[in-house]
Amino acid sequence: MNNSWDDIIAYLSRDRSYRRQFQQIYKNTPTAEAVRNAIATYERTLITPNAPFDRYLKGDKNAITATEKQGYDRFKSYGCVACHQGINVGGNMYQRLGTFEDYFARRDSITVADIGRMSIS
Questions:
Q1: Residue 11 and residue 16: Cα distance in Å, rounded?
Q2: What Cα–Cα distance (Å) separates residue 119 from each residue in 39, 82, 97, 112?
Q3: What is the pLDDT of residues 100-115, one digit of tens each?
Q4: Is the whole model's pTM more than 0.85, yes or no?
Q5: CB 106: neighbour CB atoms within 10 A?
Q6: How many other C-beta atoms can be found within 10 angstroms of the C-beta atom of residue 64?
Q7: Distance (Å, rounded) from C-alpha 41 to C-alpha 64?
Q8: I need a labelling partner for 104 at 20 to 30 A (CA). Which of 11, 26, 61, 95 fits?
């Protein structure tokens, strides 16, 4: 995400909770290898397309909590579902950035990565 491992490790190392958790799980301070492993381990827990939210959308009204239902109602009321829909909740199409505000307005500097697919499509 346009960051360096040095910056990521420094950020994680400044946080007492992260340091404690890395020590507990990896028996070490945060390292690039441990961070990659932690992210991969987390991503393996994403159990879609039959996750609780998916089951809720299929009609199981008890699949998610009342708080999660409130969040989904807010998501819909803001209009997010216009783009974020389908089995990948938006990962199935390309959309213009800046639906609610100018995406680049508050950026200090714009890089090629910020332009996204525009530079190749």
A1: 11
A2: 28, 24, 14, 8
A3: 788 788 778 888 777 7
A4: no
A5: 7
A6: 19
A7: 23
A8: 11
